[in-house]
């Protein structure tokens, strides 16, 4: 399974200015407007639109009013600096309901070699992707699909590390979209359950996506298929949001405060 770590960046706004995620995006937008850019070369219009959508980000709305895109990637390996994306799957969640007809599933032809250990996991071979588009042709389609939705994923930091590296190389900057890690939410939910009981804390809980689906009695989907894993993570996300704090999660800020499991991957 994927694994990654990143520092937590929270949103704070005040009368004197912006800090955290909102301020960072505002700085990126200001640089673009000045024609400087944060990375060499022009910034793609879709990426500039992405910055503008989150330059002023409100966490106080009812959570049902937000749109989420739950995504997953299949890779040639686990190193964002050396490996590449070979498949992207995504499904939209609106009103805390999964829309299985609103999905994106694309295969990607990598520029470099594909490694046998990864191929044995996801069964995507060089022949499978030989006639598929490269990542630079897929990224605009993904940005249009996300279109202001927040991103959710299981170990989402790794997905975003690969995607942001690709957007920096081909579109002129990183993705500014806020992200939620379902693994972190599951950890927060398990801690919440333990604190409300007299049972010993179960330190041997597996936070593997499929194991969590089994643990919580959720529908199970095929592993190591980007779209199927995205659907699995979507069911986990909706389940956890509805369960945490006894169902009292009302706003995005409530979700953050429930376990400080919110993570911004830039």
Keywords, please?
266 residues, disordered C terminus, alpha/beta, globular, 6-stranded mixed β-sheet, 10 helices, Nucleotidyltransferase, domain 5
Order of helices and strands: EEHHEEEHHHEHEHHHHE
In CATH's first tier, which class applies?
Alpha Beta
What is the straight-line distance between the termini?
Answer: 21 Å
Strand content: 15-25%
Spans with pLDDT under 50 lasting ≥5 residues?
Answer: 3-17, 261-266
What is Rg?
19 Å
Strand order of the largest sheet: 5-4-3-6-7-8
CATH architecture: 2-Layer Sandwich
Helix content: 40-55%
Overall morphology: globular
Question: What class do helices, strands and sheet pairing give?
Answer: alpha/beta
Q: Tell me about the biggest sheet? A: 6 strands, mixed
Please work out how many helical segments DSSP would assign: 10
**Strand segment tally:** 8
Overall pLDDT score = 85
CATH superfamily: Ribonuclease H-like superfamily/Ribonuclease H
> What is the CATH topology classification name?
Nucleotidyltransferase, domain 5
Total separate domains = 1
């Amino acid at each position: 399974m994927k694994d990654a770590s990143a520092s937590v960046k929270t949103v704070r706004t005040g009368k004197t200015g912006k800090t955290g995620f909102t301020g960072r995006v505002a700085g990126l937008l200001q640089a673009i407007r000045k024609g400087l850019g944060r990375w060499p070369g022009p910034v793609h219009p879709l990426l500039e639109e992405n910055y503008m959508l989150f330059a002023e980000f409100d966490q106080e709305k009812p959570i049902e009013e937000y749109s989420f895109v739950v995504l997953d990637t299949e890779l040639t390996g686990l190193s964002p600096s050396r490996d590449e994306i070979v498949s992207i799957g995504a499904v939209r969640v609106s009103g805390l309901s999964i829309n299985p007809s609103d999905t994106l599933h694309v295969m990607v032809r990598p520029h470099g070699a594909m490694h046998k250990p990864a191929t044995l996991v996801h069964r995507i071979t060089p022949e499978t992707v030989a006639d598929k588009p490269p990542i630079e042709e897929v990224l605009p389609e993904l940005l249009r699909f996300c279109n202001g939705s927040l991103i959710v994923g299981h170990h989402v930091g790794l997905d975003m590390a690969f995607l942001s590296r690709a957007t920096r190389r081909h579109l002129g900057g990183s993705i500014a979209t806020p992200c939620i890690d379902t693994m972190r939410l599951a950890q927060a939910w398990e801690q919440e359950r333990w604190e409300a009981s007299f049972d010993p804390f179960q330190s041997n809980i597996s936070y593997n996506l499929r194991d969590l689906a089994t643990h919580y009695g959720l529908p199970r989907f095929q592993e190591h298929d980007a779209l199927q894993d995205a659907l699995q993570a979507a069911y986990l996300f909706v389940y956890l949001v509805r369960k945490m704090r006894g169902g009292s999660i009302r706003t995005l800020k409530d979700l953050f405060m429930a376990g400080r499991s919110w993570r911004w991957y830039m």
